[in-house]
Amino acid sequence: MHDLKKQGSNRQKAREEGTIYDIYQRCLVIRLMEDLDHHNAIRIREKADKLIERNHIKHIIFDFSGAGFMDSAGIGVIMGRYKKVIFIGGKTAVASVNSTVDRVFRLSGLYKIIDKYDTVEAALNRLQNV
Amino acid sequence: MNDTNEMLLEFESRSQNESFARTVVAAFAAGLDPTIEELADIKTAVSEAVTNSIIHGYGNCVGTIRMKCSIRGNELTVEIEDDGVGIENISKAMEPLYTTRPELERSGMGFSFMEAFMDELEVESVVGRGTIVRMKKKVGKAERIKGYAQEAKQKIV
């Protein structure tokens, strides 16, 4: 199991209106704590892009353990971030997806380009060793 | 028998009202005893229609969105109506992945989701006057029982 505490020095935390942004080395973990709709998408997009640029982020993990709902605006947010990191060989992943959100992902075909993990820890373990 | 119900909600086209509209439609549909999955489907479809009215119908100005819901038997009908710019070419707008606002990272999947998550979808629009999106879905226990009955029948045959 990946020990998150060991990486203290490389870790940064930011919080803005319900969404928590954690940085582990070059991985950005976006912990969604509310519905991912158009209203929240605008804020998350802006904040995530700032963090991606400033911290030379390569991989992005969206943690859905606190978000029970997502619509097509969420697909837009994830696709947009995917496009940001794909050119430097980065990966985009989602973790802790419930069945409601999972259906939206499956219907959109997003799983063709992003990976799903059971937990953020599993995603971090995998992506940091890429 | 008490199997009809109606409601009308009017709200401003502000993005924080997307979650408000979802919550209201879910509360209204709760009377049909829907499954969690059915409820999620309805919420997603309403979210898409309301977001379309806000972004495309009214663009940068604030207008009024009306959400009309009715229950007839086990069928829920939801109408999302705006007095916005209207849609010039409805079939083009409904094409999967088509969007007029790629700069907003719109995925172009809104109408596809409404179609996928509801049983019926109708769009009426007049350019300069506004748009009505009408969606129907059979929901709840009665429909499930019908499904079980059919399954049982098939097994016997």
Fold and architecture overview:
The complex is a heterodimer of chains A (130) and B (157). With 130 residues, chain A is α/β, with parallel strands linked by helices. Chain A has one domain (7-128): 2-Layer Sandwich (Transcription Regulator spoIIAA), CATH 3.30.750.24. Helix content of chain A is 39%, strand content 22%. Chain A is globular, with a radius of gyration of 13 Å. Chain B is an alpha+beta fold and 157 residues long. Chain B has one domain (4-156): Histidine kinase-like ATPase, C-terminal domain (Heat Shock Protein 90). Helices cover 40% and strands 27% of the residues of chain B. Chain B has helices at 17-29, 36-57, 90-93, 110-117, 141-156, and strands at 4-12, 64-72, 75-82, 120-126, 130-138. Chain B has a 5-stranded antiparallel beta sheet with strand order 1-2-3-5-4, covered by helices on one side. In chain B, helix 1 runs antiparallel to helix 2 (36-57) and helix 2 (36-57) packs antiparallel against helix 4 (110-117). Chain A binds chain B through residues 35, 37-39, 41-42, 45, 69, 71-73, 75-77, 79-80, 99-100, 103-104, 107-108, and chain B through 15-16, 18-19, 22, 36-37, 40, 43-44, 47-48, 51, 54-55, 104-110, 112-113, 116.
Helix content of chain B: 40-55%
- Superfamily (CATH H level) name of chain B: Histidine kinase-like ATPase, C-terminal domain
Strand adjacency order, main sheet of chain A: 1-2-3-4-5-6
CATH architecture label of chain B: 2-Layer Sandwich
Please report the two chains with the greatest interface, counting residues with C-beta closer than 8 angstroms to the partner's C-beta.
Answer: A-B, 22 and 25 residues
Strand % of chain A is 15-25%
Strand arrangement, major sheet of chain B: 1-2-3-5-4
Oligomer: heterodimer
Strand content of chain B: 25-35%
Radius of gyration of chain B: 17 Å
The mean pLDDT of chain A is 89
Named CATH architecture of chain A: 2-Layer Sandwich
The separation of the N and C termini of chain A measures 16 Å
Cα radius of gyration of chain A in angstroms: 13 Å
Secondary-structure element order of chain B, N to C: EHHEEHHEEH
Please name the CATH topology of chain B: Heat Shock Protein 90
